[in-house]
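Our preliminary data section would be incomplete without showing what the modeling component actually yields. Below, a chain of 98 amino acids is followed by its predicted structure, encoded as tokens that our downstream tools consume directly.
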Amino acid sequence: MCPECEQPLEQCACGETPPPAADFVLLSLDTKGRKGKGVTIVKGLGLDRSALDKLAKQMKKQCGVGGSVKDWTIEMQGDQRGKLTALLEALSYRVKVR
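Predicted structure:
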């Protein structure tokens, strides 16, 4: 059962619709709960799941690090804000860095 909509997982649709795209993509560095290791978080893309996975793969290849897609955000290992800013701006996204 889905904890949000209380439907069987086969019928759950609450996690399939992406949040709307923001005016800009937010890049931030997070270290909380990671024993001091930094992770770059990419939020506000507004892409569906397959497009988000494809973009994450491209980002990982560009930066040469690992990463994952969690809850409509992309997490990249290390501080990759500079490289990701250049990549996202080349893809016509407006980027805000924190």
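Residues 49-63 form the longest helix (15 residues). The radius of gyration is 15 Å. Preliminary results of this kind motivate Aim 1 of the renewal.
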